[in-house]
Amino acid sequence: MDSPSEIPKHYDPKASRLKYYPHWEEKGYFKGDPNKPGESFSIVIPPPNVTGSLHMGHALNNTLQDILIRYRKMDGYNTVWIPGTDHASIAVHWVLERKFKEEGTSRFEMGREEFLKRAWEFKEEAETNILGQLRALGVACDWSRQRFTMDDGLTNAVREVFVRLYNEGLIYRAERLINWDTVAQTTLSDLEVVHEEGVLGELWSFAYPLADGTGEIIVATTRPETMLGDTAVAVHPEDERYKDLIGKQLKHPITGREFPIIADEILVDPQFGTGAVKVTPAHDPNDFEVGLRHKLPMINLLNKDGTFNENGGPFCGMVRDEVRQAVKTRITELGLDRGTKEHTMNIGRSERSGSIVEPMLSTQWFVKAKPLAAPSLAAVENGFTNFVPTNWENTYYSWLRDIRDWCISRQLWWGHQIPAWHCKDCQEITVCREDPSECAKCGSTNIEQDQDILDTWFSSALWPFSTMGWPEKTDELAKWYPTATLTTGFDIIFFWVARMMMFGQYFMGHVPFKDVYIHALIRDEHGEKMSKTKGNVVNPLDMIEKYGCDGFRFTLAAFAAQGRDVRWDESRAAGYNKFVNKIWQAFRFTMGNLDNTQVVPKVTPHGVYDRWIRHQMRLAIGDLREALENYRFNDAAAALYQFIWDEFCDWYLELSKPILYGKGTATEADKESVQATLIEIFNALARAMHPIMPFFSEELWQQLPETEGSIMNASFPKVEDFEEAPQAAAEMVFLKDVVGSIRRIRADYQVVPKQQIKALIRTDEKHLQWLRAHEQSLQTLARTSFEPLDGSAPEKVATQVVDGAEIFVELSDLIDLEDERERLKKDLEKVEKDLATLNKQLSNENFIQRAPQAVVEEKQQLLGLATEKKGHLEDALNRLA
RNA sequence: GGGCGAAUAGCUCAGUGGUAGAGCGCCGCCCUUACAAGGCGGAUGUCGGGGGUUCGACACCCUCUUCGCCCACCA
Known about the structure:
Largest sheet: 4 strands, antiparallel
Structural class: alpha/beta
Strand content: 15-25%
Helix content: 40-55%
Strand order of the largest sheet: 6-5-14-16
């Protein structure tokens, strides 16, 4: 029925992907079942934002998770991979508001209801898009469990968490100094403020006159406009220069307000500047603390949009930069300017809008962080959760140790509205699970829900358990929480990982994941971070189109060394695409050399090559498993690559040819042994490569004889499936050496490749026996016959010395004795160098005594071989002399 | 100011104390019926510098140089 010609000449990755993915999904192979047996291995996807499209980070991240899930599933674990998306509050706002701007409108103009309608429409579209792209990657997500951070279940979980934390005093509402984004018009958490370093600015000094007219005090600032909100000048209590001034009143030269000179040893460094500091409690974090300590008035200068309010006096209605200039002008006019110095400083900008963040006094909701952080620190210290690579622990620790309260309220609309109701009669706040109809304190029905929404990371922090049905007690939580591994980038260790730890421990009593694998950041070929604005983004879908999904995934795995970042190098993708082709061609060869492509010959492999390649397969499986279990994806890729290309294709397939073609002494039984081995190796290989190359391996699996169902449900090969064969391995080392030597002679002397050669080989009985057994292989791989040599070698020969034999090839006219001498000398130098190293080591008493016995023996053996080789090379040289 | 990381072949990068590796590129030869998207052979390294630990260091420790990243409220 099946003939070899039915296997296409090239693998079609797109066809396989379009064929198998829907099939897997339809058959329910991605579905997890918490009631099935098997040790749990669960993953929750880092939910992609419903804003953009798949980028290289997603591709890497999800490929690695898919590798883990597929591997564990094949290995008998009860696996599930829960997918979903994140509503990405501020990111969606930002995208939409830019869109609205183009349309000539804004969210404020259209109002909350219309905005949310548009946001949901946008979400649907974006979600469909990115989930489709994820599917194109081949991910084995359980789509029946797909969640969204704003779906009903998760919204319910968010409310439950909020209410409990509020009731337990871990969420509170207070007036604090917060970060204000004047463009997005919302608060930001500290993490959403990015600090731009080394910005060249100026430090401007001016004088505040004493109210009684007896003098002045000079202060300096990088933000002159804030002086409108100054309510004190602070000096160090021990500073002799100012001791007499403490307690005196200053008169504000613009607003006319009077305020005191105070002493504060925390704020003031007497060595810096003039040693006197202007204090603006409503617009500077340090000054705010001073304000609390000294009960200073706090004057808020800003409107939500960043314009100055009535407290700005004459500058009311102007924006920051205008006020800054106007203040300086006015002060100069008043004769109070005391000079300007260049000054490098840091500027905080909004991660999203890029606007300069204004510290501002405002009443907001906060999560009390310290009590939540302590257990999360301990959990990693005690190894309940492990970072891979471990050095990321330090990053995690350092943030949690100095954690500050988390401002969670946002003046945005797309997100979870805060479940708090303000009573307009008694001002009391009612926080509860069900929407209340009246104030909990006074019973008034004149209540209104808080207009703010929660920071988008609040719901993300619940992801590992909210996706499993919490707060209900579900089978999913019982089986799959905690999850096995979180795979993510280092950039969200604080935003997300740490907060999942805190909330997971608080609400579930256990850490949310056993391992946190921090993967590399993929940069462009110049080492630059990929970004749309730079235009250096590599689109994963283009790569899938170009190199096939399997080749692309293999490339990502091969890139994923445990480091910090990697540079994208498309030539490697091209290389691994060739690798896929190489396997495909080997597969065609295999299938083309079966007598019946439906049946596996029922024989035990007995040939020496069969035993050798099975031995190599055993080693490769061991390496592969170890790599996968330790998140060493690049080692896993290398183990496959090396075995398939260097051992299986380059040697085993070539060695198998004469046997399959019945050449030499090969019998029908030998042929069947090879056929059985080929199929068995391919069968195991398909399964071994499946986690990395799901579609390609399925394609092989479907064509291989006597396979059933999908490869997704097959088992991952075990080391014990293939027995050791040290004898065959030793024989192959020798054979490879001999073949290599003869090939080298051919290349060195440009012997016409088809020309038959006869080698004279001087060796011992054991090696001679081996040579006789491999006569056919020497013929096929090196086109050489051989004769044992007893006495001395003829004059005009090319010589090669290998471990266990001396090889001479008579080339009569072709031989150039001068060249030959040079080559031999070079070989000799190399051996002598090795020998010197070995001799030095072995003559060192300390080495003999202290090095492990095995190492010493190995060196002694190497010394013996090198000595023998040296002798043989010298003999050869002497003959030519 | 604190913390983390990197420096290995022309390029991009692996390397887990025991004689330096891969891919791409380069130089020869070869269309041998699985694969020219291939085969065979070859060249290329002061493993950033300097100390130290060790029988032995590319690997561990210290230090310096260069580059990168993260965190931080110094006016």
